[in-house]
Amino acid sequence: MTDLAAPEEEDLAAARRRLAAAQGRVVRALVAAGEVPDGFDPARLRAQAASLLAKRRSVVARLRPDAAEAAGPDLAAEFAAYARAREEPPPGYRADADDFAAWLRERGRLPDPPRRRAPWWRRLLP
């Protein structure tokens, strides 16, 4: 019986690897402007990618209103350029928002954050 189980497990493992690779191609097409995988409608995939980008942009704007304000009416174009410049989005919306703010700061669109002052009680110590 163990001789029969080994080939089935190998087949299952190979199928999982193929599925993971196929899923990776779809994700790259959606979030990193990768090629559209065979069997997918390019127009629908582009529409979904645009929708995902708009969702990311709106969440980032809520998390970092300073960045959204700095981008102003160019927010959609700036965020699209930022997203195209990355191979994949960072893990999590907060990281995405902070990375977008840093991207704007590098381009002179967002001022450096104010320096944090020492707590009041530290200023009293000699």
From TrEMBL:
It comes from the Bacteria. The lineage of its organism: Bacteria, Bacillati, Actinomycetota, Actinomycetes, Streptosporangiales. InterPro entries: SCO6045-like_C (IPR058711). This is SCO6045-like C-terminal domain-containing protein. Pfam families: SCO6045_C. Residues 20-106 form the SCO6045-like C-terminal domain.
